[in-house]
Sequence to fold (365 residues):
Amino acid sequence: MGKCPRSLVNGFDNIFISPTTILSFLAKFYYHKPMKFEQLKEIYELPFFELIHKAHEVHVSHWPEKEIQLCTLLSIKTGGCSEDCSYCSQSARYNTEIEREPLMGLDAVMESATAARDNGSTRFCMGAAWKGVRKGTKQFDDVLEIVRNVAGLGMEVCTTLGELGAEEAKQLKEAGVTAYNHNLDTSREHYPNIVTSHTYDDRLNTIRHAQDAGMSVCCGGILGLGETPDDRLKMIEVISEFNPQPESVPINSLMPMPGTPLAESSSVDIFDVVRMIAVTRIACPNAKVRLSAGRSNMSEEGQTMCFYAGANSIFYGEKLLTTVNPAIQKDLKLIEKLGINPLKPNPAMEAPGSECDKELSPCCK
Ligand code: SAM
Ligand code: DTB
Ligand code: SF4
Fold:
């Protein structure tokens, strides 16, 4: 079983592979078999200490450097979204407290991105409350211009703009996007209980387009949408089957937003969050596992268990898209106490290669 470096995947369009790429490629040269639901369930149900010990072993063997990636989020276009995602404060369908704001101007985005870099972030993720983007529109051209400029700052550039077609994905990649965030959020079965304005397959198609364009994929989900543990594991099963596997997997805990259908949801037990981080680490050993929304409601001890179980990335900075996140100084103190170092930036990061002898996944429907 071998891995296809991107130059092979892309049809020999770039035969030259740098020595650094070869080294990191060799370091990660594990054929990782996707994990099936039954296996994931068996692991998920292990006694707690056995589970986190196993996940920690996988973690240190794949990520021996004791590092954590600090990523900053910025909502570049807020609210007024046509979609009905029942967790989201930015959906126009619900009466939430969020003020709509048009696409930010280049200067304001650059100010935030520069501040994020100066605060130690190595990844800057720009989110937009859109169903998706379309090539040739002024809005998309403006986003491309923003990406080109942010890409010059030396951080990894991530965007999350909703649905992408093949051409949009290609243009984003060319403009300098390193990673595209598009979450599956839950299982295929539970998805229609949460979102009806687009489908699970729509999500998978966008992921395929991002992969084909050579962007890394950041794909994960939310805990606390009224799903069962089985739904969570089914989502991880799908994600672990991606070929190429995602470069990062964000695990969000629902931030219940006033006015949304899920406003009154109860919070997820931290032990369940840790279990999911551990299973994700085992299922996607080469991915960064990002402890995402919800940290502001977690104790430092709870977060520490997540880091032990394999989380090696956080959103950093006092705001997520529309909600709160822990203070920067508090986060820095915690990671110092734990003896973990902020990961160095790698803006030249290449997307993970696919397994040559396996079908690409997800497949477009
Ligand atoms: N519109 C784009 C999309 O849906 O992909 C990008 C922005 S959307 C806000 C990005 C992700 O944020 C969602 O897929 C979901 O995982 C997460 N998210 C949104 N609202 C959340 C909430 N209230 N609590 C936790 N995670 C949330
Ligand atoms: C992801 O998985 N989590 C981030 C990022 N990708 C875009 C977003 C979290 C949003 C939390 C709710 C809010 O701030 O509105
Ligand atoms: Fe729109 Fe994304 Fe929020 Fe869904 S999650 S309502 S697509 S911004």
In short: DSSP finds 13 helices and twelve strands in the chain. Residues 81, 83, 85, 88, 90-91, 129, 131, 162 surround iron/sulfur cluster (ligand 3) (CB under 6 Å). The chain has a mean pLDDT of 91.
